[in-house]
Amino acid sequence: MALISSVRRAAMPFAFSDPFPQRQGRSIAEVQFSPMLPVIRNSLQDQGSSSSILSFRMEKPVYIAHAESFSAPQQTNAATRRRGIECNAYEAADQPLEIHIELPDEQSRARIRIGLYFATWWALNVVFNIYNKKVLNAFPYPWLTSTLSLAAGSLMMLLSWATRVAEAPKVDLEFWKMLLPVAVAHTIGHVAATVSMSKVAVSFTHIIKSGEPAFSVLVSRFLLGDMFPLPVYLSLVPIIGGCALSAVTELNFNMTGFMGAMISNLAFVFRNIFSKKGMKGTTVSGMNYYACLSMLSLALLTPFAIVVEGPQMWAAGWWNAVTQIGPNFIWWVVAQSVFYHLYNQVSYMSLDQISPLTFSIGNTMKRVSVIVSSIIIFHTPVQPVNALGAAIAILGTFLYSQAKQ
């Protein structure tokens, strides 16, 4: 409802002079606002007076839209001119103004969160593989490189717990006993993959590692007695065939690099099996679980790294690398160590939020991003047949994840 009133202004804000001051007695018209009744009326202040009280009474608040000044009617004398104010008002609505803003529901927020996890996971993994290969090209000591990766992650988590950036897990001796076989498998798989990448191209290592589902099915079938539907077994055909085709057409094939990737596949299959058993009933988050895994793996790996390579070889190799590359080599070592921990930590955090099937698909797409980026960055020569084998193997991995659903 729009209310328009015209009154003539006087000195006071809501007191106005009578437009016809010929009568004496009451010369001021008062404007009163009351939120009680939705009526507007003129009332005589007394029976014998022409002056009036203009009362605004309403149940709902009135909002002033705008005010405009205008001239009063011409009088005989210019000195008696008065100016008025037009007030435009409107009544408040019965209901609050509804503004529809589409907020993402819980399912949409979950998709966004998973998408961020995957994007971060893939990006960190790509960066790690690039710097890891740069370090291994200049410093071909994979045992020490693997040790530094675990040491950096362990140090980062100890600092985060000490500064209370992350809450330290509450673990007991039984937890460490269950974690021990996981750490053994993780250590073997980590070192074997690093050895592989020190001998062959990053793309080739990851093509062979895309055959991990085949190892998973074979180990689960013959060692654990698990049975799978026929589509799962059929999905292994393109995986094994694609990996084999890529291996025989690899321009820079190296048996040590090939066997390192195969051993890494087998070790990570056992790591996943032991992790599923060890994480049942535990309240440790994925981030802290991987932190504890890194610390235990570091304790297992360090003595073996010293025996296999040794400080003397490390010192000589380090000096040569710094001499040839310069201070950037130190940054490469720090980057590959830090990004290794970060990408694994994010992957374990993702596993807390998503199903194993979604995680498997994400892992497949991660390998695609690593293979493509490494070929571009390192200018790796790839034959068409080799690329076809990689595509077949990755397709088979995707089919495996779908068939196992």
Gist of the model:
It contains 12 helices and 7 strands. It has helices at 106-138, 142-162, 173-199, 202-209, 212-222, 230-248, 255-278, 286-308, 311-325, 328-353, 356-378, 384-403, and strands spanning 2-8, 15-17, 28-34, 39-44, 52-57, 62-71, 83-91. The strands form 2 sheets. The protein has a 4-stranded mixed β-sheet, with no helix packed on it.
Distance between the termini: 62 Å
Q: Major sheet: size, sense and barrel closure?
A: 4 strands, mixed
Strand content: 5-15%
Mean pLDDT: 78
Query: What's the overall geometry?
Result: globular
- Helix/sheet category: alpha+beta
Write down how many β-strands occur, each being a DSSP E stretch of 2 or more residues: 7
Strand sequence of the main sheet, in spatial order?
2-3-5-4
Helix percent band = 55-70%
Radius of gyration computed on alpha carbons = 39 Å
Order of helices and strands: EEEEEEEHHHHHHHHHHHH
Oligomer: single chain
Helix tally equals 12
Low-confidence stretches: 1-58, 63-76
Describe the model.
With 405 residues, this protein is α+β, with helices and mostly antiparallel strands. Helices cover 62% and strands 12% of the residues. It has 12 helices and 7 strands. The chain has helices spanning 106-138, 142-162, 173-199, 202-209, 212-222, 230-248, 255-278, 286-308, 311-325, 328-353, 356-378, 384-403; strands at residues 2-8, 15-17, 28-34, 39-44, 52-57, 62-71, 83-91. The strands form 2 sheets. Strands 2-3-5-4 form a 4-stranded mixed sheet, with no helix packed on it. Strands 1-7-6 form a 3-stranded antiparallel sheet, with no helix packed on it. A hairpin with a 7-residue loop joins strand 4 and strand 5 (52-57). Helix 5 (212-222) packs across helix 7 (255-278). 35% of the residues are buried. Residues 1-58 and 63-76 have low confidence and may be disordered.
